[in-house]
């Protein structure tokens, strides 16, 4: 059966103030704090946030002084998101830290020793994806869902829209014709707001920001708008719903347009292949599409804990102009065999660059001058064109 050409597809996003994203941000602040103190620190940090309560747990290996200084950093992150509410306040929320030393058994498998290379931090399967339907080489449904919330967050942070509060969710459904997105079928936006605003008030307030993120002509008279469909959204954030690290893995990746290996990213140092392997897969897939070798590219790598070499390397193309088997041989060689160490070193992942990834997606972002989002570079595209 061939690929469908005409269909509706939907992706969602959540804002930095969504409870799960608050937890992701805090966990990644912990990763950054450790990597800033020791680039080879190990971190696996889980966070829970609920009504005026922040709880950290997990395993770390690094300078003890980092743990002592975490509370100030965590509170600063919550303040930066914008939480000064009765039910969740960066100053008054209780703080508990239950981080402890990494298991010696896990460390033994991951550490390089003698003639053994550094092993993967866990078993698992990682996927990467790219599509040429947006300039960012991301699925359009997800990119627009992210862009809506980033635009509203910018208006809130600047003081232009003080009526908005931090918690929000978006959802975009696009109509595809001949495999390309042509119009917006529906827009769903639920945003926390100051008390006293009706759904009609909120819709009038947000519509200009939402419309600005879509290309001209994509939003039509037939587009269905659902803004704050419950009718009121004053109680939100961790006060309205408990947040946990790692619960928004589809928002973090490809919005359901591609497979997902199941592992979350936030709170993990780059020896964890859940994170570094998935970043490498995106980097390779993006370069394949950027080189013009396919309209869409999906890559999977499989790892075993403590083993450096990948167990499998799979490439699937849509609209491809090269044999996928040729890429399966060439791509790992281009990045040092796709071992965890080679990925970390090539993408320079042992740096405090992770808090910024915790909201609005880990992919489809511009590479930063300090090395953030290094996996979004298209620095392999020329070599791939030559290969083809």
Given as residue ranges, the uncertain stretches (5+ residues, pLDDT < 50) are none
The order of strands across the largest sheet is: 1-8-9-10
Structural class: alpha+beta
Principal-axes shape call: flat
Distance between the termini: 27 Å
Q: What is the helix fraction of residues, given as a range?
A: 25-40%
Strand content: 25-35%
On the 0 to 100 scale, the average pLDDT is 95
How is the main sheet built? 4 strands, mixed
Contiguous helical run count: 12
- Topology order in helix (H) and strand (E) letters: EHEEHHEEEHEHEEHEHEHHEEHHH
Number of strands: 13
Please state the CA-atom Rg, rounded to the nearest Å. Answer: 21 Å
Give a short synopsis of this structure:
The protein has twelve helices and 13 strands.
Layout of helices and strands, plus pairs?
Blueprint: E1 7-14, H1 19-37, E2 42-50, E3 53-61, H2 64-68, H3 70-81, E4 84-85, E5 88-89, E6 94-101, H4 104-110, E7 124-131, H5 140-157, E8 164-177, E9 180-193, H6 199-211, E10 219-227, H7 237-240, E11 243-244, H8 249-252, H9 273-290, E12 296-303, E13 312-318, H10 324-334, H11 340-347, H12 381-387
Parallel strand pairs: 3-6, 9-10
Antiparallel strand pairs: 1-8, 2-3, 2-11, 4-5, 7-12, 8-9, 12-13
Helix pairs in contact: 1-3, 5-6, 9-11
